[in-house]
Amino acid sequence: MSISTKNALRALEKQLYAYNYAQALMSCDEATAAPPCSEAGRAEAAEVLSRAAFALLVNDDTAALLRQAAAETDLDPQLAAEVRELQRRYDEIARIPADEYAAFTRLVQQAIPAWGRAKRANDFAAFAPYLESIVEARRKQAAYFAPERHPYEVLLDRYERGLTIATCDRFFAELRETILPLLDQIRSHGTPVRTDFLDNDWPLPAQQALAREIMRRWGLDPDHCVLAESEHPFTEGLWHGDVRITTHYMPRDMVSSLYSVAHEGGHALYELNVDAAYDYTVLAGGSTMALHESQSRLFENLVGRSKAFLQGLWPALTDLFPSQLAGVSLEEFYRAVNRAEPGLIRTDADELTYSLHIMVRYELEKALIEGSLAVRDLPAAWNAKYRQYLGVEVPDDAHGVLQDIHWACGDLGYFPSYALGSAYGAQAWDDLNARFGAGVLDAQLAAGNLEPLKGALRDRLWKYGASREPAELVKSLCGGDFDVRHYTRYLRDKYAALYAL
Predict the structure, then answer these.
(1) 229 marked as binding residue
(2) Could you report the per-residue pLDDT of 142-165, keeping only the tens digit for each?
(3) Where is the signal peptide (predicted)?
């Protein structure tokens, strides 16, 4: 590639990075620090930035530059990947009218605080007009991009490249065949799990200290990763030297924040360990969302809920919460934080029922996008699905349809990534245990030594950013072709042992 073409590409990528950085900072600020009356100014700024980023990417000069770069015969692997990813970004938005693209950014900036207000007021009707506009906009965007395809499938592909409705349907069917019978067995003859001590007063300063302890054990130093509070926990990777994560503390539920920090910390580790050679290019950050969720779910569950890790954490827990954990054994705590108990809140769900929460969202957002479900009917449909899949009655919108921020952000098509990521993580865990040797990883976790695990994940996934095709990265992470049976076997084995089935 000629020096001039390379310089033009890198200049384009750095400008796009700057626009994305500014918008990401605004989003972090909105969620963690901005005053309530900041909404209008932020929406105005976001629309201007979005319009500028669109104009930078979608124009005749950029199209010509991408054609010229793609025609080069001497591209090194990194530049070839940059051209591929830039072309994908161009293709995703080039057919959307610029005014509609910018207006959607403004809409999302208005929808997010509207969702927060509606959730606090337990009033879905106040948020419904924003969601109606978001659904309609996403439907139109899908039609611009691929009018011949199911619109929801187009959205799925934005988060997990190549994912189809048929693949999701098969995947969720296999999970149901494992999860529902296991739940029935647990209900009918599982050994009871003690949970009385969880409903307690958990002092906020101690919860904050525990969050810092989890970050320390994950290796997240405050020079590169900071923790704040927000209504809904999230991770924002700005570049490999600056990652923001958040949690939400609840006075009578220590476990929620503990595993939110563990989860978001997994995302942060991925972002912080991308090769610095990709800084300010379209290869920086993680790959697909299922791969990203594989890391958050792995650190939340396969590490954070493991008996080995909790054994190492137990002295810190009993030191921070001496009265709350008085008379509680490590075994009782381990069983309590892993219990299978169908509930209302996705982010607090156990490993066994978690995918049922995702199935609800998958089926509902697919129906919204294809037009078979109206937004006004969403709360009733949500409540019916929770009754069907989890056997629970939803008491109100705040504990039901308003619990997640994703739809307010326009992220329809994201939710299946959580379940896929859980399955990727379980298969990777199987393969890592085989490579390390029986019991080796557990011994390292109990000793508080996560470096060998992190090194393996860095070599399999983290360092590559988006430089390789997602299918190649899935195979690298999992140690072979993806097979959901690793995940279903993990669930069966774990819960059979936990409940003495």
Answers:
(1) no
(2) 999 999 999 999 999 999 999 999
(3) none
